[in-house]
Amino acid sequence: MKYAVFSFKGGQYKIQEGDNLLLPLSTFEKRIVFDKVLLLVDDGAVVVGKPVLESTRVLASYLGDEKGEKIRVAKYKAKSRYRKVIGSRTKYSKVRIEKIESKA
Length: 104
Fold this sequence. Notes:
Blueprint: E1 2-8, E2 11-15, E3 20-24, E4 31-34, E5 37-42, E6 45-48, E7 56-77, E8 82-102
Antiparallel strand pairs: 1-2, 1-5, 3-8, 4-7, 5-6, 7-8
């Protein structure tokens, strides 16, 4: 089983080829290359970057934008008739991992 861990916008993501992934909203082209690969596991052989693997990259394609699940936050103060409900939906970019390339 081949998988990798890469870094994007302060987060680390474990991926395999063919995975669909929700990333923080960004402007992407149709094809994406992630160069900050931190770890690569290929059939039990583990390669760890110090801090990144220079000869490894992840190729992906951009599928579109999505909204996450709605989160509701309620504020309430007793005895003062104060009630407020706020909702929010985080926006994500959906990406499909096409290939994990390693030259080493």
